[in-house]
Amino acid sequence: MSNIARKNGIRVCIDRGGTFTDCVASIPVPVTEEYPTGRKELVVKLLSVDPGNYPDAPREGIRRILEIATGKPHPRDKLVATENLESIRMGTTVATNALLERKGERCALLISKGFKDLLLIGNQSRPKIFDLSITKPDVLYQAVVEVEERVTLVGYTSSPMGIVENIDPNDSTFVKGISGEYVHVLQKPDMDNVKKQLQDLYSQGFRSIAVCLLHSYTFVDHEQAIGALAQEIGFTHISLSSSIMPMIKMVPRGTSATADAYLTPCIKTYVDGFVSGFDENLTKNVSLQFMQSDGGLVPVSHFSGLRAILSGPAGGVVGYGMTAFDIKHGVPVIGFDMGGTSTDVSRFSGKYEHVFETTTAGVTVQAPQLDINTVAAGGGSMLFFRNGTFVVGPESASAHPGPACYRKEGPLTVTDANLILGRLNPEYFPKIFGPDENESLDIKIARSKFEELTSQINEYMANDKEAEGLKWTPMSVDEVAYGFIKVANESMCRPIRALTEAKGHDASKHILSVFGGAGGQHACAIAQALGISNIFIHKYASVLSAYGLSLADVVYETQEPSSETLSDKSLSLLKERVAALVSQCHEELGKQGFEQNLVDCEIYLNLRYNGTDCALMTLKPEGENNWDFSNAFVENYKYEFGFHLPDRDIIVDDIRVRGIGKSAQSSTLSVQEEIKTLKPKPADLSNAEGMTSIYFENGRNDQTPTYLLEKLPVGTTVSGPAIVMDANSAILIQPFSTGLITSNTVVITIGDGHKSQVTTEMDPIMLAVFGNRFMSIAEQMGRTLQKTAISTNIKERLDFSCALFGPDGGLVANAPHIPVHLGSLSHAVQYQMEYYKGDIAEGDVIMTNHPAAGGSHLPDITIITPVFNNGEIVFFVASRGHHADIGGILPGSMPPNSKELYQEGAAIRSFKLVSKGHFDLEGLTKLLVDEPAKYPGCSGTRCLRDNVSDLKAQVAANHKGIGLVKGLIMEYGLNVVQAYMMHIRKNAEMAVRDLLKGALRRSEGKDLVATDFMDDGSRISLRIEINPEDGSAVFDFKGTSEEVYGNCNAPTSVTHSAIIYCLRCMVAMDIPLNQGCLSPVTIKIPEKSMLAPSETAAVVGGNVLVSQRLVDVILKAFQVCGASQGCMNNLTFGVGGKTVDTETGDAKMVEGWGYYETIAGGAGAGPTWNGQSGVHTHMTNTRITDPEILERRYPVILREFALRAGSGGEGLHPGGEGVIRDIEFLEPMEVSILSERRVFQPYGIAGGGPGQSGKNLWDAGTYTKEDTETAFRTVNLSGKNTAHVKAGDRLLICTPGGG
What b/e sequence results for 965-996 when a residue is b if at least 16 CB atoms lie within 10 Å of its CB, and e otherwise? Predict the structure, then answer.
């Protein structure tokens, strides 16, 4: 066949999904009026897995297309002929499914010595804070080998003192890395030993390996040497982290390399199998390309598992971006892709929005991916009625057994609800169900199951109302089914709000582009809930991911690390590096047949302010000679975070070039432009296929017309209610909305319509809706705080909480942030209400951190803002964040040996940080700098600038919450919103009462009793008396020790936090956490005890240590699980603060730096689960700093971070293991450790053994013995101590295991 003919061959685009494979073909035909482009399109849809009929779905799809296009038979048992094929483009879920199902290639990891468990520990946080049976995703490798090599960075960035400029050019151990940073090679790998290690792996059957060494993002030599050796030995796949994604952060780079080693062989196996079914000309004459997660196509030879994780959904983003967005109109588009098990949402505003660190199936990877958010709500999401509320998902019926109506004895799902309501018509659904796969959807079984569920709901609600002296009006089957649809819609709106409102975009100012098999049934309701006016549904909406492939560009990306400060001086060097990368992109795309004029290169610098971690990938401004990255970054930063930092340098972390080989673009009019040319004409009812009975918010409409899309001429308008059917999906047009048929798209305009009035009476459907909305407010406050804060503690470690409170100060909703904050925040709000007694004006913002005012410990500063409505306070919003320093006797304000509160820093009962809109910087400076320094041995805050920035971020987070609360009040009315606040509290209260009654039954009517001890011997005693009638309980801490002359005293609010946390963990349902959880509980704490200390008592250990022991005692009383590590292992180190001039005796402040971290340990085992290892437990869930970031910022070397083997308690279900953290200090500094469980071991239950206690060892290096002899000195620092370390000293922290 000639080249000219081949260029005009059949083009096939395929999206291989988990259930269906969609094929869209473009077939050459003679140019006619019907086909003015000389091409016609053909859609083929088939099952992805049907081994009885074909081995490979995409190949079968191509075979069917060829038969239709050529009119000639292509037998299944013969190789598929390629003579008529021009190109094949494919998006596939092969990598995603291998990741989800853990069915990738067996692989091994080679990593720097001391870090074999690093990827297992990860960032040390647990995914779900209320799950006692902590589950973390398994690592992807089956074997790990430690390589005896080590490099570290020269100098550090936390202080100007860390800059090192004089490097000895003759010292070969100092090497300049790719990023421009110098590294110090402490130990080169012994290649003979590495060869032996690799040969051992090879003999065990491993053929795929990943290599991740410390600082290999900038120093690649050691990884490359190991890679070359592995190739010699015969490994077939070698993933070097320095090649896969050369970005700083060892954990995500390591998981990226292992993901690549795990998935790429699967991709290659799949591709080889696919290619083997065609004749030999496929790879010679047909362009075969795959879609990557970033929305670009690559040739099959460049396709890797790491970049294939979002291959399927990416095609859909390209599809709606290219068909729904019009650059002239500029209206951004929200993509809404609703499938069977989940829904993907994304946003397009003319440029693809990429993220560079994402977590899929529990695996965090570094790779450019489209910013796609997935929610576990789809057509197959299961329906439940739990504890008086409607619940949708996250469990899914999947393809097998599928929804109840699939005739496989499946559960009730969203699909069944749509069927019952008439939104799905079995006549238009393929008859592929039943034992012989030839029957239609079964509406009878769906109705039968809904009748059963409706009966249960009515019985529960009637009893519940009767207990209050009220009458319940029974719900019909339709009302119940519609209720579940409303709840599903709200859960799908939540990620859209996060994608838009949380990033400063107004959701209502978007077009909603709906696709996927189930999207058309929910489109109008989703748009209405978000205030969106226009919906675009493409004619290929049900196969848009496949269609999008035909519109996608071919890309080649390359990236290098950097450490330059952005300046006029550095720009020339950056330009040189960019030019080299641009040349590389042109060369690579040229090999793929793209002329120079068809290649565009997007140039990015990954920029951040010095001293912060938040880098923004910044696109070069338009114009060949415009290299003003600085202003572009500042504008991006202000847009993203609402402020900028003009006094800080801008650092270049990475240089990235994205080469784009342009595909032929369509010359057809955009939808927006086409609409202007149309003369709309109403649909003729006589052309309807029939009338259907459909249930809407206000009842059934028995005369809802059904139209076939193919029979509706362009320009036709369809007034709702109506159903428009295409070959593969149904589009529901709600009452008061109108659909317009264009040549390629159904455009729905949402009318105002009639919205049913929500009353103050409790409705189980609206209970779920309001639960979602209240939680969404707290979550969006948290996102705003994380984005706008500057400190590591808040932005990276996520040591903060945000919450919404009622006018009584009681908790309404608390996003799942830090558990120790959960119950205590309401105490802080209620204290300020009493303190000001009405003297709070609109525009006031209150700041507090005092333990007597509802605080936890002093570094946790709470910002409280009232929400006004018509001059009255109707809600409060609050945010609490851990500040890096607020003064006191030691850097970090976490002194292990404090005896008085003033030694821990600034203590603020109440301060109007903002008064009627004015930010009081002068007053704040006095409180944080001047006041703490008045006390003996104490300094004011050592980082006022960061304090101010973080406090402004907290104010911004509260402001975000206020706007969302006011929006909710506008939507439903104040009375309704406040009524549902109370209903949700009552719902939580009933769940806790049921829990307590169950606990009493299990204890055979006896009181629940427990005691445990702090390491200093202080006792915490608890007796729980439960009333069997109403499920109320008294938690009595009589017998608890007196206030401690130390810092292990817990403010009363901390005890409330521990109790509310434990109760929420033990409730076996996903109930909203609020004040209702504590309504059945009376708490008795002895005055002047360590749980109710005097106002001047030191409390820093109470928040981080006593809180953990309180949880251990409560769970022990309930006999739920073994004790977890019972500690947060608080480590601080740094320099600076107040010093005394030896000559004058005057005090002066020395600028310095400080670092704070909490360290993971072992979790307790339970009756059905093993304790998790190397994880944060109970009252904290903060992340730990990545090893490479730690060594870049501070003068330390992390020698080891691994699990502590054998530290978990023995038993049928063993306790989790603690960790070992070994830190070497490179300069003199002050180091403090505040820890527990160094004496008393974490208990086991039901005969299980205790976990090992922890220990803190200071290797103080060498000292001179008797003037001549040198001795080695290692000392036990005990649980709480401060040491002045010198260069070369090491600290070994061994955290406790779980019982």
Answer: bbebbeebebebbbbbbbbbbbbbbbbbbbbb
Residue located via tokens 């049976």: 133
Q: How far apart are CA 1075 and CA 1084, in angstroms?
A: 17
DSSP assignment of 837-893, as one string? TT---TT-EEEE--GGGT-SSTTEEEEEEEEEETTEEEEEEEEEEE-S---BSSTTS
Quote the CA–CA distance of 735 and 473 in Å, as a whole number: 26
Contact 228/240 with Cβ under 8 angstroms?
no
First to last CA, the chain: 73
Distance, in Å, from the CA atom of 820 to the CA atom of 910, rounded to the nearest integer, reads 21
For the segment 230-248, what is each residue's pLDDT rounded down to a tens digit?
999 999 999 999 998 888 9
Tokens standing for 42? 């053909």
Instruction: Count CB neighbours of 712 within 10 A.
Output: 18
Q: What is the pLDDT of residue 541?
A: 86
Contact 1022, 1007 (CB under 8 A): no
Confidence of residue 5 (pLDDT cuts 50, 70, 90): very low
Give me the pLDDT at residue 3, please.
Answer: 32
Dmax of the chain from CA atoms? 109
Q: Bridge-partner residues for 390, per DSSP?
A: 385
> In this structure, are residues 1199 and 1222 in contact, taking their beta carbons and an 8 Å threshold?
yes
Tell me 37's DSSP state: T
Does residue 1040 contact residue 1019 with C-beta atoms inside 8 Å?
yes
Q: Pick from 1136, 759, 1168, 737: which is nearest to 980 by CA?
A: 759
Output 931 or 698, whichever has higher pLDDT.
Answer: 931
> Counting Cβ atoms within 10 Å, is residue 344 exposed (0-12), middle (13-18) or buried (19+)?
buried
Average pLDDT, the chain: 88
C-alpha angle 275/277/282, rounded to 5°?
50
Cβ atoms of 1256 and 1291 within 8 Å: the answer is yes
Answer whether 248's CB lies under 8 Å from 561's CB: yes
- Judged by DSSP in three states, 189 sits in coil
Burial of 875 (0-12, 13-18, 19+ CB in 10 A): buried
- How far is CA 735 from its chain centroid? 37
Residue carrying structure tokens 């074909």: 54
Instruction: Summarize pLDDT for 1211-1249 with one digit per residue, the tens.
Output: 999 999 999 999 999 999 999 999 999 999 999 999 999
Q: Which two tokens stand for residue 659?
A: 């080469």
Instruction: Write the DSSP symbol of residue 913.
Output: E
pLDDT single digits (tens) 338-380: 876 678 888 998 888 888 877 777 787 888 888 888 776 777 8
SS3 448: helix
| pTM, full prediction | 0.86
Q: What is the mean pLDDT of residues 1068-1089?
A: 87
Q: Where are the beta strands (DSSP E) in 306-361?
A: 333-338, 343-348, 354-360
Q: Please name which of 503, 502, 504, 501 lies closest in space to residue 531, comparing C-alpha atoms.
A: 501
Cβ within 8 Å of residue 270, ≥6 positions away? 92, 94
Of all helices (H) and strands (E), which one includes residue 447?
helix 443-467
Strands 860-869 and 872-882: antiparallel
Sheet holding 1269-1276, edge to edge: 1196-1203, 1219-1225, 1290-1294, 1255-1265, 1269-1276
Pairing of strands 745-749, 738-741: antiparallel
CA distances from 43 to 25, 73, 209, 313 (A): 6, 18, 40, 18
What's the sign of the alpha-carbon dihedral 135, 140, 145, 151? negative
Buried b (16+ CB within 10 A) or exposed e, 53-75: ebebbbbbbbbbbbeebeeeebe
Handedness of CA 451, 456, 462, 468 (dihedral sign): negative
Classify residue 429 by its DSSP letter. S
